[in-house]
User: Fold this.
Amino acid sequence: MLQFLELMAVIAAASFGVLLARSKHLDPVGCISVTFVVSFGGGTLRDVLLDRQPLFWIQHEHYAWIVFAIAVVGSLLPRLPSGLDRWLAVPDAIGMALFSIAGAGVAVRTEAFVVSPFLASLFGVMTGTFGGVLGDIAVNEVPRLFQPTTPLYATCAFVGCWVYLLLRETALGADAALWIGAAAIVALRLAALRWNLRLPGPRR
Amino acid sequence: MLQFLELMAVIAAASFGVLLARSKHLDPVGCISVTFVVSFGGGTLRDVLLDRQPLFWIQHEHYAWIVFAIAVVGSLLPRLPSGLDRWLAVPDAIGMALFSIAGAGVAVRTEAFVVSPFLASLFGVMTGTFGGVLGDIAVNEVPRLFQPTTPLYATCAFVGCWVYLLLRETALGADAALWIGAAAIVALRLAALRWNLRLPGPRR
Amino acid sequence: MLQFLELMAVIAAASFGVLLARSKHLDPVGCISVTFVVSFGGGTLRDVLLDRQPLFWIQHEHYAWIVFAIAVVGSLLPRLPSGLDRWLAVPDAIGMALFSIAGAGVAVRTEAFVVSPFLASLFGVMTGTFGGVLGDIAVNEVPRLFQPTTPLYATCAFVGCWVYLLLRETALGADAALWIGAAAIVALRLAALRWNLRLPGPRR
Assistant:
């Protein structure tokens, strides 16, 4: 089950990378590079900052093969299915939820030094959302995550990570906490998309 | 005394992060992200490149709390006090000086391998100034540090790091060298602001 | 011989850094920063992602001196020789070839964990080409490597890395494989420049 969800998460992230690269008219080299950055950027940043070796996509090499294949196929297709980004909304919400909770869990269980729950929640958000930020930076855009026009995204990850971090200290245990935290992120994110919920932005 | 100055340095760096985020009309998620990048980017780059673990803001977690609080408050205030950047000039110069000297000191004292004084001076400049560079890149601007319209900034850090690195080999000792190097940076930077001193730029 | 080629590779990379910085009218601080990013970015990314310490330019400190000197001189010259980028095409091809093969070789020989030939080929391409990508990002451009107007570059590195990775398992041995792989990259790259070979881009 978890493996199936992980696979779906990687496929959704890679598909968004292809969409981003094609929206900027990049060639296959650009498409492959940007797809890798979007798919693996957040987790790689977490692993480097926490000094975890090997990186998760070196350990689970089939992720790299999947991302590579999606990027190559996606860059060569004459046109992408229209409405692809709407189809991807649910897998993306699940992927972001899984990566965020996994990121917070990895951070809080660090053994070489102490990572507090507060910092772990930030690592969770970063793991789940910064692939897209790095991808936007790589193609010379202001990251959409930072803009007031985006429905709640990082905020859902932040709330869900706290649900997970608090519940794992209770009698429920770490496994139940993981699923409840991830479900909270997915539910919040889909609600944000449905009703276009946003953070208060600055007045212009 | 040093702790008070460090606190001031973090507050100044975070305030500049908020100013940068608001100038680009980012939402609170963008404001928090950019403020963290501006405040911790230079030191994090140093720690990652020198393989120092844990990162300084994981070790001194209260820095992360301060930066987070400033970013949240700063993103929600209806308007910032006008002239804030002028008020921040002196704390920023002190903060940049402290971070630069600390960066050079950390680099030159590396035990796992040899870092020469020349490389240590570059690490000092990077620690003191690259938070702002990474912040500018994150919000899709050409870094102001790289532009000929900016009064001397990295150059002050470079000179002060050399003052520190040379004096610490003398009878004065490392502590006196630290204070004299940092004072040199602050004095140079304030002089550069006062008389608008710049490096020779390319003719256009 | 190899040392002479390495020196040429560093000089070519640094010269492209200076060209990039001057095309954006940066001051000497910007020129030095961008030149370091272009020259050392790809190899540094490889070393950080594979957890290799010390970084190659800390170990071989004379590289840093050469890059620094080229950047300082290059930022102060009133004008650069015209047609410099054409003169640099051959040294750049050789430099990119050497860095790519060296990157793939370092990755595949990693001892702390297993890096497969597929991942090693990606590390090779990254080592050889991502300095320029990071430099373009730093000066707020869409990386040229990603654009369909660029003659084959990363593709040459990819093919040559596979030539190297496959031949080193044969009776030829690792040394011969290195030279044949690097020669393949240089030949492909010069052919791509001569006949303007490109990857199929997206239709606009």
